[in-house]
Structures are given as C-alpha cells and as structure tokens.
Amino acid sequence: MANEKVQARIEPAPRPAAAPEPAPTPRPDAQAVAAAPSEVAAREEAPQPGACTRLSTWFATTFPHSRNAVLGGICGLVVALLLFSVGLLKTLVIALLVTIGVACGQYADGDPKLVNLVREFMKRR
Q: What pLDDT digit, counting tens, does each position of 23-32 carry?
C-alpha cells in the first residue's frame, strides 16, 4: 500500500450557459408621466445625508468626550505609516505642504490663525 501511486486528473469545470438578456422595459411616454405627477412625487425619496454628515454623527456618538484624542491618534498613525513607507525627508515635506495648505485655507476663510502665528514668531526675532 505504501508503494502504490495515486493518479488524479484535474478537469476544467464546465462553463455555465449564458443567461438570456432581459427584454427591455418600455419607457413611459411623456403623456403618461404628465398625467400622474403625484405618483412620481410619491416615488421620490427624501435625500439621504452625505457621507461626511454620517461620519461626523458616528464619530460624535462613538467618541463623545475624546474627539481630540482620537483625531490625534489617527494623525499619529498616518505620520507613522508615512515615515515607514516614504521616509523621514519626504514625510517632513508632506507635513510642510499640508501646513501651508491649512494656512491658505484659513486665510481664505478669513481666520488666518496660522499666518498670524508665523507673523508673531517673526516679529520676536
């Protein structure tokens, strides 16, 4: 029994038959739609909140008293991943460009906190 050879043959699986294409549904003509606007209005659903709104709501309910700690942890994770994947110099360049982008956004919003901070730092020197 130990010296017996086992032979097996692997055959490809049979291909399934192509499913027939469904017949196209006829489009309602303009008169039928115009005749029943209440049905069209009834079919329309209320708009769903956007992804940012849902994420913000989830974040507020999941982490009610530690929002800044969780955001800091996420930022730390992103920085660690960048350090390991692209290196120190490229990570510092990315951080500098993100800071410049935040400063430009604050300036465009009319609340240039970062720009004012840099100006104060330059005045002291």
A: 666 665 555 5
Q: How far apart are CA 45 and CA 41, in angstroms?
A: 8
At 21, the amino acid letter reads: E
Residue of 72, 67, 69, 44 whose CA lies nearest to 55: 67
Nearest to 99 by CA among 113, 109, 114: 114
116, HSE (Cβ side, Cα atoms, 13 Å): 6
Q: What SS3 class is residue 66?
A: coil
pLDDT tens digits along 76-97: 899 899 999 999 999 999 999 9
Letter string b/e over residues 98-115, b meaning 16 or more CB atoms within 10 A of that residue's CB: eeeeebeeeeeeeebebe
pTM of the model: 0.47
